[in-house]
């Protein structure tokens, strides 16, 4: 049947009631069958084992048959979900919560302050500028999220930006693409404020274009980098050139220097020769330009550090290149401070004098403690260190010699960060499941706190409870999770429950405000975040406990969390949905294939689901993930990957839960072909009668909201939530 005839046939089924009442408990609603998908006989032989791949033809993204199949799948997905009253309510409520003024921090450059702002009702942020105040000074927020580079003295906060005011437009993203899928972001400014480096991203892909704007003429210079993977783009002191990191899928990352006006083919390689595509490299300057500090991350498994003394003109020297540990350096007051898990799974703080950089000369300032050390900053000649204590932030203060000097009080179940806010003041930023981001200014002498900035949102947390509970995994490991619900919830096993997780790449799922959680609570549901091994919540041992040959621990932890919720009476398999994106998509993909009886609905976004063929995907830029998952070309690693790679573990004749996949052509980090093949495989295999659908965008990528218009973000989120609500029997509140 042609694509046109198939779509027409699906449209004709729209009259079928997809939510028809069932005649007996456990019977599935009357969903129409999915579109037919051709099967082909393809069998790989890997290490002597035959691996069937019946939907290999769907790997051809641009083939006419694949494109027709995608049209059919999108039509089928719309047919299944339908434009129900609950979906309409979700679109309206998400618009209220998500479509708010979004203002970036201003950056001073020359006589102006530059900032991005997306006003309510607009799809994309616009780059604006306004005259800088007479009091010169530049606020720079330091912390590990900004690279823990060399610090600068902060000044008072700039005047707030008024979304109702008129500002001069520098670049309007809306004018670059009628579909509003292209956006621009500020990268760097020349010291005199005359030039701006910015990037252009299309559709949420990882790749960007690099442009340089003459801010006096409003024109772009001829020095421009094509669409590719970049990092660390910054001008030199006199803006006669700039350094940039170029990542290649074939040869790996290289830090290069470009002389303005020169041919890019002649750019000098500053660092990175010999490192492959499974690595990331970074560079920062320290000691007022005397030193260059280089880092090499081998995936998320370990880090190297190197340095160069520019004053002495010496070569790049290794500080550490042979340790299975992470290193996060930051230069301050003549010393290199390094947070590391070398011989300390929870992290410790060292100092290195670059005059005597040998490892035997390193000095420990703050030793490892019982909690995970996350980051540090310097304020008023003290070290402020952030920790994770049972997945909740704590901030402790130390003298420069490491002597304990108190702490900054943080409420339980919050994520917190601090920065300098002027002489004798600290800015404390908090967020939680019930509180959007709020910043307090703290007087260090009196301890008085005043609200400096608060994100306002139309949500009343009255009556909502946040609990932390513990499940026991298959091997006895205790696994924490946050459970958020209304205080009146009954433990009758009938509460629609949304369980999400990630479990990988040393990433910690901390407390944070989520519009999805808010809306789910308003639908009468229970919202749960599980913290599995593979993340960084309890240090490097916790991370290693969920990577490579230990990856199955992550799935065991997640399944244990689901079982705990059922046993405690929060929910039941018919009322439980699981959600995950990227590595979280692998998580829920493995969970649904290993325990299809445990879940009623699955949201699987931009997922890694065919890990056996992962090394062969030429459009994939995520070679570092092989150091986390393993490489199936290595026999020992093939043996454990094939036990849990979701696509290969789908079994015909199994009653699988309802599943919604989402991905798009511009995901160059996790190949979208995996979701295409997994959709077809599950549609063919399942006997439950529950739908398996695919939401697919030509202009969707792994960078998510960075390139996706606000209107489509709302539309996509509403459709996903409507699907889960439909499957779990949750309906819009009557109000």
Produce a short descriptive summary:
The protein is α+β, with helices and mostly antiparallel strands. Strands 8, 9, 10, 11, 12, 13, 14 and 15 form an 8-stranded antiparallel beta sheet that branches. An 8-stranded mixed beta sheet has the order 32-33-35-34-36-37-38-39, with helices on both faces. Strands 3, 4, 5, 6 and 7 form a 5-stranded antiparallel beta sheet that branches.
Going by helix content, strand content and strand pairing, the class is: alpha+beta
- Biggest β-sheet, characterized? 8 strands, antiparallel
Number of strands: 39
Stated plainly, the CATH topology of one domain is called Rossmann fold
Radius of gyration: 26 Å
According to CATH, the homologous superfamily of one domain is: Alpha/Beta hydrolase fold, catalytic domain
Number of helices: 11
Instruction: Name the overall outline.
Output: globular
Approximate helicity band: 10-25%
Segments where pLDDT lies below 50 for 5+ residues? 1-26, 136-155
What's the end-to-end separation, in Å? Answer: 46 Å
> What is the CATH top level name of one domain?
Alpha Beta
At CATH level 2, the architecture of one domain is 3-Layer(aba) Sandwich
């Amino acid at each position: 049947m042609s694509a046109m005839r198939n779509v027409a046939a699906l449209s004709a089924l729209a009259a079928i009631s997809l939510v028809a009442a069932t005649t007996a408990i456990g019977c599935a609603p009357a969903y129409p069958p999915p579109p037919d998908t051709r099967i082909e006989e393809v069998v790989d032989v890997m290490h002597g084992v035959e691996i069937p791949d019946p939907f290999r033809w769907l790997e051809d993204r641009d083939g006419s048959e694949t494109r027709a199949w995608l049209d059919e799948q999108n039509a089928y997905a719309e047919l299944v979900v339908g434009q129900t009253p609950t979906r309409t309510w979700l679109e309206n409520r998400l618009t209220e919560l998500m479509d708010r003024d979004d203002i970036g921090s201003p950056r001073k450059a020359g006589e102006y302050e530059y900032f991005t702002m997306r006003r309510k009702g607009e799809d994309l942020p616009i780059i604006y500028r306004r005259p800088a105040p007479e009091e010169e000074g530049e606020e720079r927020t330091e912390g590990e999220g900004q690279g823990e580079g060399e610090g600068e003295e902060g000044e008072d906060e700039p005047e707030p930006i008024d979304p109702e005011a008129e500002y001069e437009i520098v670049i309007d993203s809306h004018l670059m693409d009628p579909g509003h899928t292209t956006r621009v972001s500020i990268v760097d400014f020349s010291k005199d404020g005359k030039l701006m480096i910015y990037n252009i991203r299309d559709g949420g892909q990882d790749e960007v274009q690099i442009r340089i704007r003459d801010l006096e003429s409003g024109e772009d210079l001829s020095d421009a980098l094509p669409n590719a993977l970049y990092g660390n783009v910054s001008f030199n002191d006199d803006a006669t050139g700039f350094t940039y990191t170029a990542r290649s899928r074939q040869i790996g990352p290289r830090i290069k220097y470009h002389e303005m006006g020169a041919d890019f083919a002649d750019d000098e390689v500053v660092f990175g020769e010999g490192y492959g595509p499974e690595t990331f490299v970074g560079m920062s300057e320290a000691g007022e330009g005397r030193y260059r500090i280089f880092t090499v991350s081998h995936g998320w498994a370990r880090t190297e550090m190197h340095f160069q003394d520019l004053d002495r003109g010496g070569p790049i020297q290794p500080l550490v290149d042979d340790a299975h540990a992470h290193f996060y350096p930051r230069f301050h007051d003549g010393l290199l401070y390094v947070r590391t898990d070398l011989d300390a799974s929870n992290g410790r703080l060292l100092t290195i004098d670059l005059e005597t950089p040998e490892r035997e000369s390193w000095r420990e300032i703050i030793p490892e403690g019982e909690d995970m050390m996350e980051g540090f900053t310097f304020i008023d000649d003290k070290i402020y260190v952030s920790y994770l204590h049972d997945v909740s932030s704590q901030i402790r203060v130390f003298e420069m010699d490491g002597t304990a000097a108190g702490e900054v009080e943080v409420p339980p179940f919050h994520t917190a960060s601090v920065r300098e806010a002027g002489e004798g003041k600290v800015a404390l930023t908090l967020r939680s499941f019930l509180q959007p981001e709020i910043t307090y200014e703290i007087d260090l002498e009196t301890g008085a706190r005043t609200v400096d900035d608060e994100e306002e949102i139309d949500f009343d947390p009255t009556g909502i409870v946040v609990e932390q509970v513990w499940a026991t995994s298959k091997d006895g490991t205790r696994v924490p999770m946050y459970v958020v619900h209304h205080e009146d919830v009954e433990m009758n096993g009938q509460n629609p429950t949304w369980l999400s997780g990630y479990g990988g790449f040393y990433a910690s799922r901390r407390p944070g405000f989520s519009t999805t959680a808010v809306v789910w609570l308003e639908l009468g549901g229970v919202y749960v975040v599980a913290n599995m091994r593979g993340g960084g919540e309890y240090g490097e041992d916790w991370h290693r406990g969920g990577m490579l040959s230990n990856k199955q621990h992550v799935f065991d932890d997640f399944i244990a969390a689901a079982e705990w919720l059922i046993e405690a009476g929060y929910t039941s398999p018919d009322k439980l949905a699981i959600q995950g994106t990227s590595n979280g998509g692998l998580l829920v993909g493995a969970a649904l294939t290993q325990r299809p009886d445990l879940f009623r609905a699955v949201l699987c976004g931009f997922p890694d689901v065919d890990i056996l063929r992962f090394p062969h995907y030429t459009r994939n830029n995520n070679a570092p993930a092989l150091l986390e998952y393993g490489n199936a070309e290595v026999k020992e690693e093939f043996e454990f990957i094939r036990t849990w790679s979701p696509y290969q573990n789908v079994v015909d004749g199994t009653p699988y839960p309802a599943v919604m996949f989402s991905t798009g052509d511009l995901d160059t980090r996790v190949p979208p072909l995996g979701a295409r093949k997994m959709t077809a495989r599950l549609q063919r295999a399942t006997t439950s009668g529950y739908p398996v659908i695919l939401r697919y965008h030509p202009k969707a990528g792994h960078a998510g909201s960075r390139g996706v218009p606000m209107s489509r973000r709302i539309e996509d989120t509403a459709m996903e939530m409507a699907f889960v609500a439909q499957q779990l029997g949750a309906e819009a509140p009557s109000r």
